[in-house]
Write a sequence for this structure.
């Protein structure tokens, strides 16, 4: 009986048929490579999630997004100082945080609409943990998203002169009756 290899018995065709031991090693090697890819894929996915949290995508290219009132302070220090000191809006998240425990999720989201910056809009407030720079009703609630203005310093890139209509999103008749406040164009203290 011959103890030669399969190539001896069947010619060159046997070279293409893997031995059971070689097949087992190849399968193990393939599984090991797959297992090495999983952490790399998870790391890449986590990186994408973190990037999107820090730099939220805009809905359309070139659309202005919210930057937070502290960014405004670098070019408008007097207005920002007056706003931070005198305007109730500059500290509006405090009242929301105090009341949050007694509110339903629906009621809480209703508060976010007026007591935070850009809630429900692209690049606006999402939570106290993820977007703390937008947690209060800041400059951009009245003047609109500020990224285009901060990048260009162009006064036309942001709403400058406000009207009562700009206030009515939050200071509307039903809220005036319910909470007893009135829209004041100078309520921003600047």
């Amino acid at each position: 009986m011959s103890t030669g290899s399969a190539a001896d018995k069947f010619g060159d065709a046997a070279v293409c048929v893997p031995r059971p031991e070689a097949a087992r090693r190849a399968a193990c090697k393939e599984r090991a490579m797959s297992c090495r890819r999983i952490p790399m894929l998870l790391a890449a996915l986590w990186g994408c999630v973190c990037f999107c949290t820090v730099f939220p995508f805009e809905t359309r290219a070139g659309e202005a997004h919210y930057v937070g009132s502290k960014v405004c302070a670098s070019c408008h220090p007097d207005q920002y100082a007056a706003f931070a000191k005198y305007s109730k809006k500059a500290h509006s998240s405090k009242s929301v945080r105090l009341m949050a425990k007694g509110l339903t999720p629906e009621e809480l989201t209703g508060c976010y609409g007026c007591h935070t910056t850009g809630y429900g809009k692209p690049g606006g407030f999402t939570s106290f943990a993820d977007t703390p720079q937008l947690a209060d009703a800041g400059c951009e609630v009245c003047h609109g998203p500020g990224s285009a203005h901060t990048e260009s310093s162009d006064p036309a890139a942001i709403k400058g002169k406000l009207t009562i209509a700009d206030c009515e999103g939050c200071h509307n008749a039903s809220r005036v009756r319910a909470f007893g406040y009135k829209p004041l164009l100078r309520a921003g203290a600047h």
Summary: The mean pLDDT is 75.
